[in-house]
């Protein structure tokens, strides 16, 4: 019974998590707006040039990965704080518990 009490999060930890949830929910909203802008610019790029913009593809992938990381944190599937408390993500998302493979 003592181990249950010792392992339970304390009230301060819960309130800290709540504050981070509010901050990262705002960051997610902002990231979704930026993603919409990327979609529009990419569409215009394809419309006028006939091909996608490589830099927007890379940024769109990392922005999508960031949104995935934020959602994992908000839904309590990860304890890792997303950007700006960690590095900006690069590449495809890594599921929780997996480690990125380096080829």
Rg to the nearest angstrom? Answer: 18 Å
Largest sheet: none
For the record, give the distance between the C-alpha atoms at the N and C termini, rounded to a whole number: 46 Å
Catalogue the unreliable spans: none
Number of contiguous helices: 3
Average pLDDT:
85
The computed structural class is mainly alpha
H/E element string? HHH
Please give the number of β-strands: 0
Name the helicity range: 55-70%
Shape: elongated
Name the beta content range: under 5%
Layout of helices and strands, plus pairs?
Elements (H helix, E strand, L loop, with lengths): L1 H6 L3 H39 L4 H21 L29
Task: Give the tags.
103 residues, mainly alpha, 64% helix
Describe the structure.
The protein has 103 residues and is mainly α. The chain has a domain at 29-93. The protein contains three helices and no strands. It has helices at 2-7, 11-49, 54-74. The model has no long low-confidence stretch (mean pLDDT 85).
Give a summary of the structure in a few sentences.
It contains 3 helices and no strands. It has 103 residues and is mostly helical.
């Amino acid at each position: 019974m003592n181990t249950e009490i010792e392992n339970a999060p304390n009230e301060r930890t819960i309130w800290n998590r709540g504050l981070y949830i509010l901050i990262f929910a705002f960051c997610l909203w902002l990231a979704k707006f930026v993603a919409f802008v990327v979609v529009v610019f990419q569409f215009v790029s394809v419309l006028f040039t006939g091909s996608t913009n490589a830099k927007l593809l890379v940024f769109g992938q990392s922005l999508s990965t960031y949104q995935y990381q934020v959602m994992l944190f908000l839904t309590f599937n990860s304890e890792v704080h997303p950007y700006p408390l960690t590095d900006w993500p690069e590449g495809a998302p890594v599921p929780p518990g997996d480690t990125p493979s380096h080829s």
